[in-house]
């Protein structure tokens, strides 16, 4: 018979136990943390982070008042009505706000969320509409976010700012499935709003290349173009006229009490836009910030 190994001593058992304990501790440290249920009463707005999965509350949202958004009256009214219906539990559409840069697309979403919540508070005594921002690079985690929100009694606007996809990007398929095409579909208490500079969310040169190299050009791009069809509401934002730009300037100046000669205000505002090569809500706001700084006035809401 082969010789039997010596029985482990107490010191051997202690060393083994210590080693196993260190291994268990290391595995626990590298294991993903379990998602904790978010406190959705902590704020009106949240930012979604997929790893680890969590919703971080935003105590103070960076937004402007709805009355300050000029030159986009039709888009304002349509989106406000859609949001109000959704907040009341009625059918409403996902919305794509697309078009010119700096014309207030993301500002409009945040302002209408706040305005709708104020009406809910006056009517029902609670602010039950939540705004959840998801970053463009986290779109693939959208199904996980929807799963987290669907069992909650609140209603949610999931918002993605500056949404677009590159030619080799396949994460748009996650968005398509969530908006309409998945087996579960979009939860009844969630609506999706997105802003983009592109109407179809995809670069034009990629779509043209697909058409030129395909046997059936129409079918080649159908899957990618159909992404924007998932948005029942398309709102186009176009470059503003000079009168609309000056109306924005005058609105800001009146709202914040900037006492300034009207003709001088007009001349400096036009010069500001000319040096930047654009007239937009963003350009108007930047000019007003510069003017208020020169006047030594704080811009308080």
From TrEMBL:
It comes from Chelatococcus sambhunathii. This is Predicted ATPase, AAA+ superfamily. InterPro entries: DUF815 (IPR008533), P-loop_NTPase (IPR027417).
């Amino acid at each position: 018979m082969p010789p039997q190994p010596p029985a482990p001593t107490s010191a051997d058992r202690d060393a083994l136990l210590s080693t196993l304990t260190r291994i268990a501790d290391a595995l626990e440290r590298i294991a993903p943390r379990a998602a904790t249920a978010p406190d959705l009463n902590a704020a009106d707005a949240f930012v979604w982070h997929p790893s680890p999965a969590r919703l971080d509350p935003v105590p103070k949202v960076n937004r402007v008042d709805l009355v300050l958004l000029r030159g986009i009256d039709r888009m304002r009214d349509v989106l406000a009505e859609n949001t109000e219906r959704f907040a009341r539990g009625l059918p409403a559409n996902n919305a794509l706000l697309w078009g010119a840069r700096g014309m207030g697309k993301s500002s409009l979403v945040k302002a209408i969320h706040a305005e709708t919540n104020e009406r809910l508070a006056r009517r029902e005594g609670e602010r039950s509409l939540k705004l959840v921002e998801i970053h463009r690079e986290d779109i693939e985690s959208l199904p996980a976010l929807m799963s987290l929100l669907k069992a909650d009694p609140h209603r949610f606007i999931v918002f993605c700012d500056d949404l677009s996809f590159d030619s080799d990007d396949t994460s748009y398929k996650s968005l398509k499935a969530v908006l309409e095409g998945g087996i579960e579909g979009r939860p009844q208490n969630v609506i999706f709003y997105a802003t983009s500079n592109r109407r179809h969310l995809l670069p034009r040169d990629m779509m043209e290349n697909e058409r030129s190299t395909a046997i059936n050009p129409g079918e080649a791009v159908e899957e990618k173009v159909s992404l924007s069809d998932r948005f029942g509401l398309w709102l186009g934002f176009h470059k503003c006229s000079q009168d609309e730009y000056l109306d924005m300037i005058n609105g800001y100046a009146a709202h914040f009490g900037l006492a300034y000669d009207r003709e001088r205000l007009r001349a400096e505002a036009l010069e500001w836009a000319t040096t930047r090569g654009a007239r937009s809500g963003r350009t108007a706001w930047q000019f007003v910030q510069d003017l208020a700084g020169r006047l030594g006035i704080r811009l308080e809401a």
